[in-house]
Amino acid sequence: MRLLMYAVGWLAGVGLLVALVLLVFGSGDDSVSVPPVRETELADAAVRGRCELRVARTGERLNPPVDGPAGVAPAKPGFYDRPVSSPALAAAVRRGIVVIQFRRDLDGRGKNSLKSLQAAVPTGTIVAPNGTNMRFELAVTAYRRLLGCPRFTDRTLDAVQLFRGRFLGSGPDTT
């Protein structure tokens, strides 16, 4: 019994010490808050978000583009305020980066949600306004894959997160 009390005392002391250190120095938590994902299956999330999930056949051109010629300089991951050239975005998806594009008239709340999504996986995601006159309000591309959503909603965010999780790092030019 005495040994048990001794162990409990030590554990309580260590816990108190850790709490004190975190209080003084901060937790160091640089995490980004993104909405929780309600779905676990991409196809179901796409349906619930009223999005279209496509795989490009050889030679098929989708808008926005999901492939392009090798050897083009890729766009760097980040959040862009202006459209990025289609060849640079296509080169990025060839390198396994997921590209999220939105119509320029997307509201501030939507843009902030997309900024949070980009910040959650900063080295693997590009977010930019679309410059190809796509028919979607929001589109996400990976190598030869497209998730196109006519409207931006919380349900489309589920689909976007699952799409990115599934296809991040897929592409013929990944290292």
Question: Could you describe the 3D structure shown?
Answer:
The structure is a single chain. The chain has 175 residues and is of the alpha/beta class. It is built from 5 helices and 6 strands, in the order ααββαβαβββα.
Features:
175 residues, six-stranded mixed beta sheet, alpha/beta, 6 strands, globular
Which SSEs are present, and which pair or pack?
Blueprint: H1 2-25, H2 42-48, E1 52-55, E2 78-79, H3 86-94, E3 98-102, H4 108-120, E4 125-129, E5 138-142, E6 145-149, H5 154-167
Parallel strand pairs: 2-4, 3-4
Antiparallel strand pairs: 1-6, 3-5, 5-6
Total DSSP E strands: 6
Global mean pLDDT: 84
- Secondary structure class reads alpha/beta
Q: Indicate the percent of residues in helices.
A: 25-40%
User: What amount of the residues lies in strands?
Assistant: 5-15%
Oligomer description: single chain
Radius of gyration: 21 Å
Quick overview:
With 175 residues, the chain is an alpha/beta fold.
